[in-house]
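[stage:ingest] chain + small molecule (flavin-adenine dinucleotide)
[stage:ingest] validated
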Amino acid sequence: MLWDLFSSMIPPIASDFVAGESPAEAIAHVREINRGGVGGIVNLLGEHYSERSPADADREEYCSLLADLGCGDVDGTISVKPSQIGLDVGETVFEDNLATIVERAEAEGVFCWIDMEDHTTTDATLDAYERHATETDSGVGACLQANLKRTPDDLERLAALPEKVRLVKGAYNPPPDVGYRDRDRVDEAYEDCLEFAFREFDGGIAVGSHDPRMIERAKELYDAYGTDFEIQMLMGVRTAAQFELASEGYDVNQYLPFGPKWLSYFYRRIRERKENALFALRAVAGS
Ligand code: FAD
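[stage:predict] done
[stage:export] tokens:
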């Protein structure tokens, strides 16, 4: 019975974390959060395609989404996963599809974020980002993960570029020679990266974290260095804080995934925090 509920539509508990199955629902959600001063970062769910056709299909979905976001009255960007547009098929497929998306984003005046996946993809992702950030006036941003030991070097490499970097703690568990798993060590690395970015970057920083301590630190660093920054959080996580920060005048953007492949993303959100699991159980029990 529960499965029927899950397979036929997005149930109310999941719709706290996912903005629907269709682009129209995602855009409607962006418009709704825009009313509270929060921008949208739209992500079509999908990753690790081993064949070209689904990667090309998602590229086309992004292009039509960009046309909707570019209509002028929506405050929204997109965020794309490299393995969704062909990185597992081959670097050239990824690069071709990314170039098409970035070109379309530029034409529509919409910013394009590139998500960062596991550490085996960092080089290809940053190379592609660097090319677009230097060769086009495209409005493109990359994501760096504080739990990777290489990130301070990557930050130095990217500091001279005109575009934005999103700093996150990292959602993947890197092997010990490549990264940190200890939460305190990751937090320490995140604070160091934040400080470096505020000191050295001109293009702007996105603080991709729900952590109140990191957000406070970003505010302090802004006071010290004056570097523009935005706060990015996921749909369904600390929603009240998102609107509160926006009402205080901070630039806040909500990452909102959508699409038919929502179930595994929803499970991931539920698994990663006890509070989310309890919330889901209460919602099911009460429905
Ligand atoms: P955590 O270290 O998980 O938690 C710190 C504190 O934040 C908690 O003690 C609590 O006070 C608060 N908090 C955290 N979660 C919740 C919650 N559910 N409810 C209430 N309070 C909470 N990772 C990647 O590897 N690649 C990406 O491209 C990427 N993109 C991202 C984009 C955005 C916009 C965001 C927000 C995250 C992204 N991530 C990405 C995920 C990121 O790496 C972290 O795994 C994730 O954000 C959890 O770390 P945290 O800094 O939010 O806080």
